[in-house]
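To illustrate the input format used throughout this study, we show a single complete record. The first block contains the structure-token representation of the backbone; no residue identities are included at this stage. The design step must infer an amino acid for every position from geometry alone.
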């Protein structure tokens, strides 16, 4: 029987037509019938023509070759699973999910169900029901029943503390960092509902999103300087944000056994009790000071630019250098740093002008002013008449450009203290990620357990997202949440069938995609992949 063989020689690769035969002793041997020359002397088109002619000479119908068809059976995204399943493993969460599943004898794969909801939250946030219908879009996800998604939320709620601790402990190890500064802040997450239930998490309160009349919860978050999460807490929607701080500090000490840390928080957390709790825990604080609440003598000192002898500068979001002048004074065991910047003064004046413009509009509709007149520099005259409060306007003008910060830290310089407080903006960015990119709100779960499960799911999603962005940044690959999403969206494969055999055909990979995978330690998929070989790439 004759066949085609490629022989490797020092001078190159040679094509031979070889025949198999048996010699007089019955031993199988090969002999060369014809030498076609070097392989590199032929173009692909020439080899194709030779092959087609040989097929015809052998009695084959050339139409059989030309009519071989390739059909696409399905299309999947592999990027989200490849990236975030590895991030999940970095935090050793699969082991924890396995332990939870074994303990409760769950009849489904908890990790698989949670990962599906995480991928959906990171790719295109939607309801859990929609996630159930979208699960076939992802390569690597096993089939999940809808009821298992809801049961998974319940388990996330039950074990949210264990999940937070696991993330914190491995997060410290992953980037080998000493936790020395913790940023704390509170935001509100609302529901598209006005219905309150006594004692439940969903309550009406002051909304940071301006959603008047809707129910909400308080979401309190602790992060480090790299925006890595340390922990979170959920409170009823009518809780005053300053009352959450004590529990956060005590839990930080109790749950994580952290001995020394500087807690950085906004002025909403400033109260004597909160500062005492922080000090009693052995921590130091850098907290926004309520300048307008200080005694008159202190205000006079901090609002007089003649006392501002120090200077500090930083680059703003537009990479413009901002000069800040400062003065310091001690009060009730803490150092108060007063700061002034012309840029902030300009913004304060602009914000007040907008409020005054709104006030002029509202004066014509006094029925709208009963609860918010003071916010727009209006005061009531008689039963239904309002007028501008000129004294309040003049009083506020005095504070334009000024901001005060309090600390009990004795080792940091003023510049270092201001630098740490400036990083508080990172927690605002983190809240923006929760609210916009992950669409944590509005929420459509009504029981406390499902609400807590949903928050834990979003916390997990944020953790994996921030981990991935941080790892890329440290490897020199800078990107954003939105750009990362677009990049992952393009990472697709088609399941194709050819002559009763199935293959994965990968979408064209850009240089950016290849570089991105290398930075994360991921394998690039070949352009054509046997179905059985897929697992080694995911």
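Output of the design step:
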């Amino acid at each position: 029987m004759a066949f085609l063989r490629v022989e490797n020689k020092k001078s190159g690769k040679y094509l031979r037509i070889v025949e198999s035969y048996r010699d007089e002793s019955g031993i199988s041997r090969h002999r060369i019938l014809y030498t076609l020359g070097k392989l590199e002397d032929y173009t692909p088109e020439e080899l194709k023509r030779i092959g087609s002619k040989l097929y015809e000479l052998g009695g084959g119908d050339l139409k059989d070759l030309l009519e071989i068809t390739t059909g696409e059976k399905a299309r999947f995204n592999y990027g989200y699973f490849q990236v975030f399943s590895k991030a999940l493993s970095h935090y050793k969460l699969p082991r924890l999910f396995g332990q939870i599943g074994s303990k409760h004898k769950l009849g489904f794969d908890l990790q698989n169900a949670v990962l599906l909801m995480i991928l959906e939250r990171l790719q295109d946030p939607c309801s859990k029901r929609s996630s159930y219908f979208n699960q076939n879009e992802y390569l690597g996800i096993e089939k999940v029943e809808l009821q298992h998604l809801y049961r998974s939320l319940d388990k996330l709620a039950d074990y949210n503390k264990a999940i937070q601790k696991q993330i914190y402990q491995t997060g410290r190890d992953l980037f080998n960092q000493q936790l020395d500064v913790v940023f704390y802040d509170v935001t509100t997450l609302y529901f598209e509902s006005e219905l309150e239930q006594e004692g439940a998490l969903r309550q009406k309160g002051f909304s940071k999103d301006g959603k008047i009349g809707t129910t909400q919860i308080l979401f309190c978050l602790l992060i480090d300087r790299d925006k890595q999460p340390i922990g979170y807490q959920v409170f009823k929607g009518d809780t005053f944000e300053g009352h959450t701080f004590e529990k956060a500090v005590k839990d930080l000490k109790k749950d994580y056994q952290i001995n020394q840390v500087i807690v950085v928080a906004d002025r909403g957390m400033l109260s004597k009790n909160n500062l005492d709790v922080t000090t009693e825990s052995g921590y130091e604080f850098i907290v926004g000071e309520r300048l307008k609440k200080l005694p008159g003598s202190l205000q006079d000192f901090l609002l007089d630019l003649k006392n501002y002898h120090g200077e500090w500068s930083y680059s703003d979001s537009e990479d413009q250098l901002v000069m800040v002048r400062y003065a310091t004074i001690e009060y009730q065991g803490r150092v108060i740093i007063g700061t002034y910047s012309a840029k902030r003064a300009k913004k304060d004046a602009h914000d007040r002008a907008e409020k005054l413009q709104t006030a002029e509009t509202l004066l014509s509709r006094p029925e709208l002013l009963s609860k918010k007149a003071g916010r727009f520099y209006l005061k009531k005259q008689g039963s239904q008449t309002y007028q501008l409060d000129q004294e309040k306007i003049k009083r506020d003008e005095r504070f334009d450009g000024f901001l005060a910060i309090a600390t009990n830290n004795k080792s940091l310089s003023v510049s270092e203290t201001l630098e740490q407080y400036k990083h508080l903006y990172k927690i605002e960015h983190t809240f923006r990620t929760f609210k916009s990119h992950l669409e944590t709100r509005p929420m459509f779960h009504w029981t406390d357990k499902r609400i807590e499960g949903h928050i834990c799911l979003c916390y997990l999603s944020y953790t994996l997202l921030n981990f991935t962005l941080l790892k890329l940044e440290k490897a020199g690959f800078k990107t954003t949440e939105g750009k990362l999403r677009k990049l992952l969206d393009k990472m697709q494969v088609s399941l194709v069938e050819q002559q009763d055999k199935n293959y994965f055909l990968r979408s064209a990979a850009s240089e950016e995609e290849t570089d991105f995978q290398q930075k994360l330690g991921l394998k690039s998929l070949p352009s054509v992949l046997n179905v059985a070989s897929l697992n080694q790439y995911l």
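Structural context for interpreting the output: The first strand starts at residue 2 and ends at 9. The chain has a mean pLDDT of 88.
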